[in-house]
Specification:
elongated, Rossmann fold, three-stranded mixed beta sheet, 2 domains, six-stranded mixed beta sheet, Ubiquitin-like (UB roll)
């Protein structure tokens, strides 16, 4: 059953939908459309309250205010690649975020999160649980370091389950990427731009090595996938 309040609101929404484009200018003065709730969608690194603070949406804002200034403020933040804000009448704003893709952790005196574009992301690692490998790029030239970051981000998206087994990443010979895995303990050489097939081959190889007996104190196994259609394995030795 429609109460007088709901009936009045329904009539108002119908009027809004059928009035000229300049109508929201007048609706901004109505307290009924003041922002009462803000929903944040799409974040993994940033906390919702951080998104709200960065946006600049303040008490007394109206859902009919133009969201452009809020969206611009959000996209200036290093963690945010894209931001859009939509309204859900009568009093809700929905912020949709696409965050920068993290490549891994780098040691610059303290551990910091770096994006695939090479941007240091201002993230409190004590608050955000991050399961990403350590990227050993300290001392590399800028172009080499960025290549490692970009390749790491690419591989993490290509096979997230495999990437969860990687503990360290470094630059290898000839532009290759050198990975260190912990389950099993292995050193892996991947060519630049490794394919999904090569990652499936690597996963199968690691599963095989994990089932093999391992001598105590032995060096890590070596796995080389730089050659087309073959995987070269050097078993662990003392």
């Amino acid at each position: 059953m429609l109460t007088p309040y709901r009936l009045g609101l329904l009539v108002l929404l119908v009027v809004v939908a059928t009035t000229p484009f300049w109508a929201p200018l007048g609706l901004r003065r109505l307290d009924r459309f003041n922002v009462e709730r803000v929903e944040v969608v799409g974040t993994r690194i940033m906390a919702p309250h951080e998104v709200l603070a960065v946006s600049g949406i303040s008490a007394g804002a109206n859902v009919w205010n133009s969201p452009r200034a809020w969206e611009t403020a959000l996209t200036r933040h290093p963690v945010v690649d894209e931001a859009s804000i939509t309204r859900r009448l009568p009093g809700t704003l929905v912020i949709r975020i696409r965050e920068s893709r993290p490549a891994g952790l780098v040691d610059s005196g303290t551990l910091r999160l770096v994006s695939v574009e090479g941007t240091m992301l201002p993230v409190d690692l004590s608050r955000v649980p991050v399961d990403l490998p350590l990227l050993r790029t300290r001392g590399l030239a800028g172009t080499q370091a960025r290549r490692v970051w970009a390749e790491s981000g690419y591989l993490s998206q290509l096979d997230q389950a495999l990437w969860a087994r990687v503990s360290e990443v470094a630059a290898g010979p000839g532009g290759a990427l050198m990975l260190r895995t912990g389950r099993p303990d292995a050193q892996v050489l991947l060519p630049p731009g490794a394919t999904a097939l090569q990652l499936r081959q690597l996963r199968s190889t690691l599963d095989y090595l994990a089932r093999q007996p391992r001598p105590d104190g032995s060096a890590p196994a070596r796995v080389d996938l730089r050659w087309e259609d073959q995987v070269v394995i050097s078993a662990p030795t003392r």
